[in-house]
Amino acid sequence: GESVGLHLPTLSVQEGDNSIINCAYSNSASDYFIWYKQESGKGPQFIIDIRSNMDKRQGQRVTVLLNKTVKHLSLQIAATQPGDSAVYFCAERENDYKLSFGAGTTVTVRA
Amino acid sequence: GAVVSQHPSRVICKSGTSVKIECRSLDFQATTMFWYRQFPKQSLMLMATSNEGSKATYEQGVEKDKFLINHASLTLSTLTVTSAHPEDSSFYICSAREPQVPKTQYFGPGTRLLVL
Q: Which stretches of B30-85 are DSSP H helices?
């Protein structure tokens, strides 16, 4: 079946550097995408979303890029901080249906 | 973003007892809420979709008589784990969807259930 996946399960980044987390999705009909951050022992926290009629969306220190041609989603974090260490999930949705989650990427920030 | 609360955050119970978990959307009305289960180092597994005023829709393999869901108001959904057993020990997370487009889904802080 179609699902959302992540290219890499772990990412180690030096504090202050930029981070890029990638996500591949297979449902070409998906029209809404969300990135969540989950810290240990907590629920997922909404970071940023993007609709399929957009290619890029920026938030505070974060940017989401959507490439519908290759069905690829990425999350860029600028000037990564220790507090950014967490598991990051991408999720996709078709119309008002339920979200489909990827496996998650663990980001570790090195001091 | 919107706030979703969950209570309790942690519960320990004896095998055979029932446990109720509450999920509230604090600053918006949610006609649709979701219940997830998450095992260590794994992604979220959807258990059921809770619709206000109607029966919940359960995912394949989830026992509706074991995991009772009630969505009696637009801000409250409850999950009751009936006759809990050690294998039910897990991290349960609820989520509420905003009614307005794009209907963003926000998550609660989760409930850690340990069944002895």
A: none
Residue of A nearest to B109 (CA): A43
Question: What are the tens digits of pLDDT across the range B33-73?
Answer: 999 999 988 999 999 999 888 899 999 999 999 999 999 89
Express each pLDDT in A19-41 by its tens digit: 999 999 989 999 999 999 999 99
Interface of B with A in 89-108 (CB under 8 A): 93, 102-108
In chain B, residues with a C-beta closer than 8 Å to the C-beta of A96 are 103
The maximal CA–CA distance of chain A, rounded, in angstroms, is 42
Of A32, A44, A98, the CB nearest to B107: A44
